[in-house]
## 1
Amino acid sequence: SSELTQDPAVSVALGQTVRITCQGDSLRSYYASWYQQKPGQAPVLVIYGKNNRPSGIPDRFSGSSSGNTASLTITGAQAEDEADYYCNSRDSSGNHLRVFGGGTKLTVL
Amino acid sequence: EVQLVESGGGLVQPGGSLRLSCAASGFTVSSNYMSWVRQAPGKGLEWVSVIYSGGSTYYADSVKGRFTISRDNSKNTLYLQMNSLRAEDTAVYYCAREYSSSWDNWFDPWGQGTLVTVSS
């Protein structure tokens, strides 16, 4: 089955731009979706498809993809963006499975 | 309002069984793909299982043969029957509505989660 790899931790200065990446073979065939999870809370969808934001998600969140890498970019990071971020995609083996990345802990300095 | 509410978690001994429920409101479970995702304490998200609107079911290798996903259309509720539980199944279990196309998938919304602890 497929695997998605994320950096365990990333930091960004308040108001600066940060990119969180997700790598995996399945991303050559499928777009990633991205989730924000704060301590003690359920995950929340922030980006899906080519670069779509659900209602209520600030436009400072954006997504992109190239080859086997998907990226979540936060332009002008805010203190409330400090959270864990997970990517997800379909498994590319044609077995109907899904896969999550290991998660990235974002610290806003 | 679209909402998912899980229940049924608790403490169970290794080898035991537990059934989780996920009650949906604001949409019809049987018309959607529905998934279970779990998160072990201090760890990341792990996809567990999906049931398609047509009824097909699929499982992660880690639970295949032990867990069964199902739904009750009359109750608009999703279930996860968990048998032969192991310590490594200890986690918060989330249910989520899943959208899926030929080139992507995403989960929205998620329930609040229910904690399953497997321990003697």
## 2
Amino acid sequence: GQNIDQPTEMTATEGAIVQINCTYQTSGFNGLFWYQQHAGEAPTFLSYNVLDGLEEKGRFSSFLSRSKGYSYLLLKELQMKDSASYLCAVWDSNYQLIWGAGTKLIIKP
Amino acid sequence: DTGVSQNPRHKITKRGQNVTFRCDPISEHNRLYWYRQTLGQGPEFLTYFQNEAQLEKSRLLSDRFSAERPKGSFSTLEIQRTEQGDSAMYLCASSLGTTDTGELFFGEGSRLTVL
């Protein structure tokens, strides 16, 4: 079966750095997304990785290792507004987008 | 506003009633997706359109669910004879469709509560 695993919840301190991990087992791989979702709102796009390595975009970076079926989202200089759920999603070989359950990130002052 | 729009944003209905949700995608986007999301879960794929053609439908989708995109622009999702288990957020997303792996842009969602 297809599966994406992320921690259910993480807590971090304002100004700090946090890394959210995602591991996947899918039938094929055509790219991995990270989305941010605030409570009661729709997901918004953060990053897309299709090749191995690190993609940096401001305070957010995303890493992919296809051989390990592993990605992480790195958030630096955390702000209170970063409190949200972070969803990992993978395009499989049939171009179905498989979603993880999301990681709820709680930022404390 | 040039984003994906959905309406109604909230719908409360009694079990057994029919409900219809509408999605207006970003105008130049060819692909339109419907997802369902419950609390603490990621979006669950329901169906998707390439222009007016419905190309994929989830095996989990019962016959009570139907979606249309008659002119390749807006889409509707109808749920007949609603059940309490249908209570969820229904998300619409669109993408440009020039590749199969394009970024999805989501609407704000339509939250359904079945009493």
